[in-house]
Amino acid sequence: MQDPLFPDTDNLGAPPPKPRTRGRGVEAASAAPALRSLRERLPPLLRLGTSSWSYPGWIGSVWAQDYSPQKLSKQGLRAYAQHPLLRTVSLDRAFYQPLTVDQYAAYAAQVPEDFRFVVKAPARVVDAMERDESGRGLQPNPGFLDPQRAQLLFAEPALEGLRHKLGVLVFQISPLPDAMLRGIPNFIPRLGAMLRALPALKTAAPDAVVAVEVRNAEWLTPDFVATLRDAGATYCLGLHAKMPPIEDQLPILRALWPGPLVCRWNLHRKHGAYGYEDARQKYGDFNALVDPDPQTRTTLARVIKGTTAAGYPAYVTLGNKAEGSAPLSAVALAEALADG
């Protein structure tokens, strides 16, 4: 399905790489006319994007030539936003270290007016454990789901820096240790208190949505749904091997209907719950759809269509480890939508 969108190239749209250049900005790949035509066939309320953008292997689909990850991280966003289909991006780095107002504003200055950001809450708010550099849990995090931390470290800086370009505040709650799973009924009221304490978004960011993503299926209870509804938040459809398949998560969205769609498709189920490293090794430069998942893609396209047809926005970000290449997954999903 992808070949016609990248004519006269090899490897699904990647021309032979040009040598790296120094002292110049990042040049965007030339978009084939078919890509621009495909954009016109998509629902206007849909914003597709990827998880971050600093991947040199996206030559031909996003970048015109080979650049280092460091250069792409610092200078690639402006070129990324020129891709016809990529109208959002997930600021995953905000999970590891809270960003400042100035950092958010610098990102906003690099993208068009119609671009929106999906921003992850810092681990200091959404991880129940404090961890060392290797990720090993050291002790319980006293700031887990703390309303003040959520406001000061996350919501307020993001809103002030991104303004109307803020799309989604995502509270992705990290996997809980087994010993904490039984405490989820006690965590749910804390989650609700945190969500209700967030500043109003709509005046400065009319398109903004608050969403909660989880990595333990034990969260998915009627109390969890009621808490999201009461706080005016939605459920982030997390397509990850730690969670049930998309079909088994849809009842949560139905219980919150009507409302927006937020989806983060991160990891192909074949790799298992801890398969990020296996996927990274298999997918290499992230420049091809190595493990296409048409079933998930078709189901997701149906949900997107239903959401946008009802007049609600849909934010969908894709990771390289979902099928092998996030930009090419975006193209394939767009084709599934356009082809019905």
Write the layout of secondary structure elements.
Layout (H helix, E strand, L loop, with lengths): L32 H8 L5 E6 L17 H7 L1 H4 L5 E6 L1 H4 L4 H8 L7 E5 L2 H4 L2 E3 L5 E4 L6 H16 L3 E8 L4 H4 L2 H13 L12 E6 L7 H10 L2 E6 L6 H11 L4 E5 L10 H8 L10 H16 L4 E5 L1 H4 L2 H14 L1
Parallel strand pairs: 1-2, 1-10, 2-3, 3-6, 6-7, 7-8, 8-9, 9-10
Antiparallel strand pairs: 4-5
Give a summary of the structure in a few sentences.
Pfam families: DUF72 (PF01904). Helix content is 39%, strand content 16%. It has helices spanning 33-40, 69-75, 77-80, 93-96, 101-108, 123-126, 147-162, 178-181, 184-196, 222-231, 246-256, 276-283, 294-309, 320-323, 326-339; strands at residues 46-51, 86-91, 116-120, 129-131, 137-140, 166-173, 209-214, 234-239, 261-265, 314-318.
Features:
alpha/beta; TIM Barrel; 8-stranded parallel barrel; two-stranded antiparallel sheet; 15 helices; globular
Protein model, in words:
With 340 residues, the chain is α/β, with parallel strands linked by helices. The protein has one domain: Protein of unknown function UPF0759 (TIM Barrel, Alpha-Beta Barrel), CATH 3.20.20.410. The chain is built from 15 helices and 10 strands. It has helices at residues 33-40, 69-75, 77-80, 93-96, 101-108, 123-126, 147-162, 178-181, 184-196, 222-231, 246-256, 276-283, 294-309, 320-323, 326-339, and strands spanning 46-51, 86-91, 116-120, 129-131, 137-140, 166-173, 209-214, 234-239, 261-265, 314-318. An 8-stranded parallel barrel has the order 1-2-3-6-7-8-9-10, surrounded by 5 helices. Strands 4-5 form a two-stranded antiparallel sheet. The longest helix is centred in the middle third of the chain and has 16 residues, at 147-162. The two termini are 14 Å apart. The model is unreliable at 1-16 (pLDDT under 50).
